[in-house]
């Protein structure tokens, strides 16, 4: 539909660094899009590291729909990119456990904690997540990476092996184990 075409044009011009044309199509997009369009536009801005613009779109989205949990996830990612880690975590934690983005939000909590050098807290958050969502591949990868950074290679290997005990043919875990 028209909004898909406009988003593609915005994406193209942001990629090319042509902010003027991108802004032209952003204005057209806003006229044509529904509420969900703001979320898609924010996602486009995030992909192109236009964090402030993504945040602005998400703030408008929340005026109409404060329960856009995917929006909360996107806002958390944007705030984390800006270095506002505590605020980012507050947004991630607003995603309820029954929502499809819950697992991603909890992994991002750990990423945010690690950016503040709170690795022990990040590890605890990942372990808690894995206790209820044991098939979260990215949690195993992140947990193992913390161990590798401390040169605890045997422990990193064990993290991958514990994931493989649940998902024996998961390529990312097999690769991680091979690299360690």
Protein model, in words:
With 180 residues, this protein is mainly α. It is built from 11 helices and no strands. It has helices at residues 2-16, 19-32, 35-47, 51-64, 69-81, 85-92, 102-115, 119-132, 137-149, 153-166, 171-179. Helix 3 (35-47) runs antiparallel to helix 4 (51-64), helix 7 runs antiparallel to helix 8 and helix 10 packs antiparallel against helix 11. The model has no long low-confidence stretch (mean pLDDT 95).
Detail the topology: elements first, then pairings:
Blueprint: H1 2-16, H2 19-32, H3 35-47, H4 51-64, H5 69-81, H6 85-92, H7 102-115, H8 119-132, H9 137-149, H10 153-166, H11 171-179
Helix pairs in contact: 1-2, 1-3, 3-4, 3-5, 4-5, 5-6, 5-7, 6-7, 7-8, 8-9, 9-10, 10-11
